[in-house]
Amino acid sequence: MSLKRYLPILDWGARYDRDTATSDAVAAVIVTIMLIPQSLAYAMLAGLPPEVGLYASIAPLVLYAVFGTSRALAVGPVAVLSLMTAAAVGQVAAQGTPEYWGAAIALALMSGLMLTAMGLLRLGFMANFLSHPVISGFITASGIIIAASQLKHILGVKAGGHNLAEVLASLAQTIGDANPITAVIGVSVAAFLFWARKRLKPLLIAKGLRPRLADVIAKAGPVMAVAASTLAVWGLGLHERGVAIVGAIPSGLPPLALPSLDPALWSSLAVSALLISVVGFVESVSVAQTLAAKRRQRIVPDQELIGLGAANIGAAFTGGFPVTGGFARSVVNFDAGAETPAAGAFTAVGILLAALLLTPLLYFLPVATLAATIIVAVLSLVDLGSLRRTWAYSRPDFAAQLATIALTLGFGVEAGILAGVGLSIFLHLYTSSRPHVAVLGLVPGSEHFRNIRRHDVVTAPHVLMMRIDESLYFANARFLEDHVADAVAADPALRHVVLMCSAVNEIDASALESLEAIDQRLKAAGLRLHLSEVKGPVMDRLKRTDFLDHLSGDVFLTQYDAFHALAPAIADAARRAERRDTARPPAQAAQ
Amino acid sequence: MSLKRYLPILDWGARYDRDTATSDAVAAVIVTIMLIPQSLAYAMLAGLPPEVGLYASIAPLVLYAVFGTSRALAVGPVAVLSLMTAAAVGQVAAQGTPEYWGAAIALALMSGLMLTAMGLLRLGFMANFLSHPVISGFITASGIIIAASQLKHILGVKAGGHNLAEVLASLAQTIGDANPITAVIGVSVAAFLFWARKRLKPLLIAKGLRPRLADVIAKAGPVMAVAASTLAVWGLGLHERGVAIVGAIPSGLPPLALPSLDPALWSSLAVSALLISVVGFVESVSVAQTLAAKRRQRIVPDQELIGLGAANIGAAFTGGFPVTGGFARSVVNFDAGAETPAAGAFTAVGILLAALLLTPLLYFLPVATLAATIIVAVLSLVDLGSLRRTWAYSRPDFAAQLATIALTLGFGVEAGILAGVGLSIFLHLYTSSRPHVAVLGLVPGSEHFRNIRRHDVVTAPHVLMMRIDESLYFANARFLEDHVADAVAADPALRHVVLMCSAVNEIDASALESLEAIDQRLKAAGLRLHLSEVKGPVMDRLKRTDFLDHLSGDVFLTQYDAFHALAPAIADAARRAERRDTARPPAQAAQ
To answer: In a designed cystine with A146, which of A285, A378, A555, B461 is the match (CB 3.0 to 4.6 A)?
Structure first.
């Protein structure tokens, strides 16, 4: 039972049969075709030799198949993690050196160990601190940076820069040196890929192809572009006219090697590894969950951490770099009929064959083609409309999202994501530190209590009834003290304060002390504090303290019980009155 | 109106009369007597010359009287801020140098400017991030450190150390050099002060004194100790036998001087100044609020920030160091009958007279007496019982409190308080990231829904009804997704999921996206998602999005409406059944 928990392969593997194998194999062929150009391109984006992309698409897929819980997730290099890898590794080594590759390998190992540890310690909740607007802003900004960084390959110039402004300035300076043939290749491949993405499938279907076959052909667009542009360079000898090509890619098995364990390197990469782990996990688990739900299956997030951790450890020991579940390729895998993680293992075999046999064919592959592949892939990540939707729904979320985008573009991926996380936590605490408080009155003819600002309700001059729409904890404990103190100081006729706790899901130690302080202060001023509608779990904990023994007032089961006990005549009369519409016009109700 | 807001003196000053002045003056005399030895002692604790303590007790009191809103708060040097000052300034300058004093002055100016800015920008809520257990743990640990650091003066040895372990180790090494006469003075003063604190007042009352006079005499214990030990040293010439004395204190007005504006100094003190500001504000405002409530007055926290800010700026320009409202002396001020902040201004006059006339009399004051005064004062801050109470009430709060105490003792005040704040925020997010979720059924014979684990209730096999006891936001958005996915995957008979939102006070953008994802996944699996009892403000915001247009199910006003619509026969039958006690025995109800 416990072994099955940590080795999901024992579960689905026991029932594996020929039909399932056929489905998985078909899906694997399609994913392999899609993954070959992606692997090469994302390795280039990470600043690594192209074969590293293939290495990162073999062992990780097999290990995820053993440890992962998603039936359809396709693991491998992805754009955002490649960018983060380049940013992290670029700080400790120069691109093109063995140290750079070694640092990328160490990053994969650290990330793999962190993910595994988080999984074993059930720390998957840490990923929750990345709010959706922050992650969406981060991915949008990453997409923009990635696309901008690839423009130099499309133009065939040597530009640099560490943030968006620098990249664009450097491009503007060097654009005069652009190689026209490279630019023609880059732009036409990009145009073809955009077209294939949007129009090819409908066109093929219109021509009479079966939708599924049309889909597969459309998804093979990058492979066609790779083949066509490679043939063009080879046939026309364009590499002799300044078109940058991939060149010799060593063919053979991935190198088995022990990653660097240098403590100085590890400590300088630690924060990056953590961010890469969390971003990779968040992206992967949301894809996995979406696909699992379609077939009413389930994934286990903590075991997903272990699966991704094993995949990254595998990448590290076979010369790869950080990997995670990719969105587009997982959807393709699912649509192509993958039924178990074995499809991933079959894909690994496909990539292995490519690494053994295909690399000589890629000698003349133009770098501009890979850059165009990346640009087309990442522009689908850019979702500026999300800013507008977030603005419409929630200002604090919008602020966090905008800050993430601005800081990622201006100061790089790590600054952006850290600022986004910090700001969303701060804004959440700020919002809940000033909760909505309604002063209540009885709706005539009922036992319901509503906000006196919004409804024409019955109150008693010596009883203040308040409902706090938030759990009480340290961030709003003082707010409550201030609020009650102000209300009581403003109205000398008051004798009773009733806090209606129906929306209070928790009272922490700070809030308990605040309630004690409020009670003592009210007592000193000749008033009594009462509570009503306290939830079961909250009451259980209050009973473990002496708060209820000292409380100047009572705890009432319902708000009406409280009102009836403190102002019986008014409550009775209002209860017996005729029920009527008490809502005030909105203008009056506004604060 | 607005001027009165920022200058509360215009409010109470307009109605100031002779009776009030008499009450204030009497209180001021008593507070002055209490404050003189405290000022000297806390200056010594901060590593500053004793007269600096007097300087910090003149201008700040006058400025607080102009800008503060508390009628009874007594401002001046306090133990915890003195310790924090010593820790901060000790990192940039050596004790005893003019640079050290200059840095303490700069710290007061920075803290004053920060407090004022926080007040003008209404940022008082930032103080809320210090939870009560953290602040209580911090003060306990500070009290222990302060007491330990004063033992060397009691023993007359030269010990050092930067944390508790070092201080105690250094004391153990040097205890052989202890000066017996100093130790006798220190121990007997400490014993006398403990005795005076606990027993003197009851004794005097028993002897027939009026309680108020007895109280004043008891409070004057430190002054008596100062006078007696000074006379003893002078009369017996003990300073020639190795007893350390305060020596020559320059008499005169506080020095008016521009504080250092060195940017390097400011940036190295910035974090310390912020922590000192927040800790000082939190302590002061809770004392002020407690005392104000006793007379049904109110304080304005944001204006309190301005009042304390002005006090610290005043301290900086007159050679002082960071100040705030002190607990013990404010209570004395209140009990002695202070009616307005003018009492503070009168106290300032008293301290000014002391600085002008009294300092020659303090030449023979033994340092051990001041150390004993500090020890007796701070040991009342040590509240280890708080740990036990917090443990009983809340494990997360206990963890934050224990971490604060341990890190403050082990690594100093700043590490301790920062770790405490970080940990309490983290634990709050962690707790609310795994909210209580109840699966609901209908209580027969009613329209109430309760937890199926705790009550014997009616459910329908194709309808899952869940109540989430927490606002939905980024930290628990994924939890909800996982929870619904698991529940649905486990039960193939389900056709409807109803989320009862009565405890949901907010749905942020992340949670909205999670709800959309849940809805889409349920739809893909042939289920429908419904909501019930959504609060008005939450509904208002949902209506601004297209979520409700796409929702696969409906939004019901009440949970019963939902159940009745989805399972009419079961709901009708259960509604008409006889009402009975449905609570299950606790053993069965436990998870």
So the answer is: A378
